[in-house]
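Re: that backbone. Tokens:
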């Protein structure tokens, strides 16, 4: 949780005799209907559809938001700020009002300040915003350190913003962490809400039991049922069996699950000889070590999942099938879907199996014990999360009956009684405190879906930063919402793109189908962009033809040296291949495309894209469209918007 990270950072700074660095981003306080919510945010931007809440802890409707903190710069200089959106805005920097606007219009020209001198180091910044009386709320705040140049303003980077933590923020972070734990622990599966509607997270359950007898070894299931955290420290499944008979009861339930097999049985499979070296290479290319401790890891990380249990868990061939479709029996799994072939999955599975211990003696399935296991399963709570045709007999109080004081007992008791039948999650003291902080709210946040909050939470829980910003071809995660169109992102996350944007890379972007739509919408909305992109302008044939010339080698920028066009390969890649031009037009946001083309390294310091325009927005091709960079970039954009209908430029 963020609160504990802040405390540890401060403690480390004090131990070294230094002033601790303040947390990055700004502190924003929202107010609506007499309710207040506070959080840290990496930038000043929002998009809230009319009639929807700004945060899960606020009622829907009009709201106010105030961002506070400092913006840090290395050298004193002149800057200008620019705001766009809908609503009213007041911008103050170093206690000076730079903008005081009773209303912004997303259809009009952005409001830009006069140049203002900022000091080296920290400069106080405060942004006060009120949503409009009608329509969607929207705000985007940009700045420029080149106010005398005709270059577009850009977002303030999160690392240049900082804020001071305060008790209100710490308490808000605590209840936010409690809400997240409530969702991840599937508390709603036992403590039913009874009302209609709810956020997507309430639909999360556990893996289905259908054919689990084919998919898992019963001995492993018995061990997992007895104590999930003994096998995975981060497991959210509770211990449901207690007392001296717990081990025997776990074996009985596993014996029943072992009988749940496909009917009729699947045909026998002849597995080919695996290519273990290819499997090992794929494990590296797919960055499995980003989330897992690979077999034989000398210092296993506590926050990663161990793979030493592979042979104990999976019958022959089942790991291959799981790798190909991890969501087949568990829609909300965090395991990424890499769209790998059967051969690739078999090679990976075989290499992993070759590196892990052989499984112990199998569990002998006794028919009488299996019957007892089925009865037990209906009584201890398994069927609240796992699908099974038997009638669930486990009952728990509905959420509405659990007043805040009751969150001191049951699953959240500090010291459970030996004879208690309550599930044991083994929450830490900090986790229990967070859940109790959430309990003290009205819990309406469980019915308020905010896509930006969903995207932040899920991208963190999915560990997206293990690849983004770390692997070649995986840009930093933070700016993707302002870079990519939500429609394209949804297709990407759902695994529905017909072609990968960078098929030559060994690394792959996986799919997370259950989360695709809300991830795509939320990433864009967190940058102040709508969940549905504005319709692109009609392609102007003459302008597109100029764009075709500009990307070619005859009088153009020779972009085709690194970028392919439809079925044509790039001519001569220098350092890094670019995305095929036929797959760019429906991918990038137009505002981002302009900034990217004008100064690629400024947008991405790791970019290999060359720079063709100067700070005065002038092109090296002075005879095309008067040498105006913006006009030339617009021509290229019209060419790219044609997609597969574009004509091949001069490539020789």
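Recovered sequence:
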């Amino acid at each position: 949780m963020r609160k504990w990270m802040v405390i540890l950072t401060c403690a480390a700074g004090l131990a070294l005799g230094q002033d601790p660095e303040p947390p990055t981003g700004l502190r924003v306080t929202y107010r609506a209907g007499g309710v207040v919510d506070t959080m840290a945010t990496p930038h000043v931007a929002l998009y809230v559809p009319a009639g929807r809440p700004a945060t899960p802890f606020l009622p829907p409707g009009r709201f106010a938001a105030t961002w506070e903190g400092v913006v840090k710069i290395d050298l004193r200089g002149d800057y200008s700020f620019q705001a766009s959106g809908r609503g009213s805005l007041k911008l103050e920097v170093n206690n000076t009002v730079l903008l005081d606007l009773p209303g912004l219009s997303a259809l009009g020209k952005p409001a830009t300040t006069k140049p203002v001198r900022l000091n080296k180091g920290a400069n106080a910044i405060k942004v006060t915003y009120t949503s409009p009386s009608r329509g969607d709320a929207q705000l985007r705040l940009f700045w420029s350190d080149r106010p005398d140049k005709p270059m577009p303003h850009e977002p303030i980077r999160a690392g240049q913003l900082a804020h001071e933590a305060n008790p209100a923020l710490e308490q808000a972070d605590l209840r936010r962490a409690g809400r997240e734990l409530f969702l991840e622990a599937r508390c709603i599966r036992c403590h039913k809400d009874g009302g209609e509607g709810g956020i997507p997270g309430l639909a999360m359950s556990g893996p289905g039991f259908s054919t689990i007898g084919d998919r898992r070894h019963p001995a492993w299931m018995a061990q997992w049922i007895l104590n999930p955290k003994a096998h995975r420290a981060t497991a959210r499944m509770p211990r449901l069996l207690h007392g001296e008979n717990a081990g025997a009861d776990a074996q009985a339930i596993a014996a029943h699950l072992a009988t749940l097999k496909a009917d009729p049985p699947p045909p026998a499979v002849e597995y080919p000889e695996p290519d273990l070296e290819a499997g090992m290479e794929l494990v590296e290319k797919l960055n499995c070590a980003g989330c897992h401790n690979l077999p034989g890891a000398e210092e296993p990380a506590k926050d990663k999942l161990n793979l030493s249990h592979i042979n104990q868990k999976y019958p022959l061939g089942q790991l291959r099938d799981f790798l190909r479709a991890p969501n087949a029996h568990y829609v909300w799994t965090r395991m990424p879907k890499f769209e790998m072939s059967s051969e690739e999955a078999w090679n990976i599975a075989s290499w992993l199996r070759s590196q892990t211990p052989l499984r112990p003696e199998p569990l002998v399935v006794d028919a009488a014990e299996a019957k007892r296991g089925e009865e037990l399963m209906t009584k201890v709570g398994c069927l609240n999360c796992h699908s099974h045709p038997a009638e669930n007999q486990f009952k728990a109080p509905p959420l509405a009956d659990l007043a805040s004081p009751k969150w001191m007992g049951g699953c959240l008791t500090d010291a459970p009684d030996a004879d208690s039948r309550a599930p044991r999650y083994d929450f830490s003291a900090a986790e229990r405190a967070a859940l109790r902080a959430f309990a003290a709210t009205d819990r309406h946040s469980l019915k308020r879906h905010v896509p930006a909050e969903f995207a932040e939470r899920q991208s963190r829980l999915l560990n997206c930063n293990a690849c983004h910003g770390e692997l070649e071809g995986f840009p930093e995660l933070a700016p993707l919402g302002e870079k990519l169109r939500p429609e394209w992102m949804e297709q990407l996350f759902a695994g529905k793109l017909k072609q990968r944007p960078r098929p030559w890379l060994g690394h792959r972007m996986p799919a997370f189908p259950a989360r695709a739509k809300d991830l795509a919408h939320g990433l864009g909305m967190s940058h102040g962009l709508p969940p549905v992109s504005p319709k692109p302008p009609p392609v102007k044939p003459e302008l597109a033809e100029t764009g075709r010339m500009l990307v070619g080698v005859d009088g153009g920028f020779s972009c085709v040296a690194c970028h392919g066009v439809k079925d044509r390969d790039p001519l001569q890649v220098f350092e890094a291949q670019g995305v095929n031009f036929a797959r760019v037009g429906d991918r990038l946001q137009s505002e981002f495309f302009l900034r990217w083309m004008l100064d690629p390294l400024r947008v991405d310091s790791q970019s290999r894209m060359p720079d063709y325009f100067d700070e005065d927005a002038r092109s090296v091709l002075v005879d095309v469209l008067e040498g105006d960079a913006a006009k030339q970039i617009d021509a290229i954009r019209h060419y790219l918007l044609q997609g597969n209908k574009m004509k091949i430029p001069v490539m020789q």
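The CA atoms of residues 239 and 510 lie 32 Å apart. Residues 167-184 form the longest helix (18 residues).
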